[in-house]
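Researcher: I'm comparing several assemblies side by side, and this is the next one on my list. It has 229 residues spread over two chains. Same procedure as the others: predict the full complex and return the structure.
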Amino acid sequence: GDSVTQMEGPVTLSEEAFLTINCTYTATGYPSLFWYVQYPGEGLQLLLKATKADDKGSNKGFEATYRKETTSFHLEKGSVQVSDSAVYFCALTPNTGGFKTIFGAGTRLFVKA
Amino acid sequence: KAGVTQTPRYLIKTRGQQVTLSCSPISGHRSVSWYQQTPGQGLQFLFEYFSETQRNKGNFPGRFSGRQFSNSRSEMNVSTLELGDSALYLCASSLAQGSGGEETQYFGPGTRLLVL
């Protein structure tokens, strides 16, 4: 079945460091890919998405490119801030009608000042 | 526009009881999905409802059920609660004008259920 694998955390960075969180997926067909962020005590917020190969999603300085050849959707940010501390989830939704979103395990990010 | 709301936010039940959780989607959204989040299993898809019909279903036992009303509000029910049902239950809504997968889901804050 479909699955998402993302790097284990926690990831600890200093402010202004470069961030990469790796994500790979297994799916039949051409799913849509997403990154969600969860702040403590809150629900999920969509960070960015890409719906087809070579699409680049971007938001708030975060970027991820849909790489079909490597089945990857790695999250990057050039300069992290303390306020970016949260849990990040990579996810896919098969384009087979409706929503049956599969999530990765989540990666906790700590950014220290 | 109001976001997705879930009630109650916190709930404590004992084993064997049943529970009903409620989700009100964003106005105009027709798709409502439910997810269970636990430290051990992460985020898992329960089911999705669209226009009062279950459109997708995850791999959960029959104790987990749901429904959607004509105003798109949704409820999920868990019968005969087990300790392992303790989790954060998240609801998400979407316009679902197309095939669904490419659209954005908006998540509510969740209902935290503790089973004693």
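Model: For your comparison table: Residues 92 and 106 of chain B are 5 Å apart (CA to CA).
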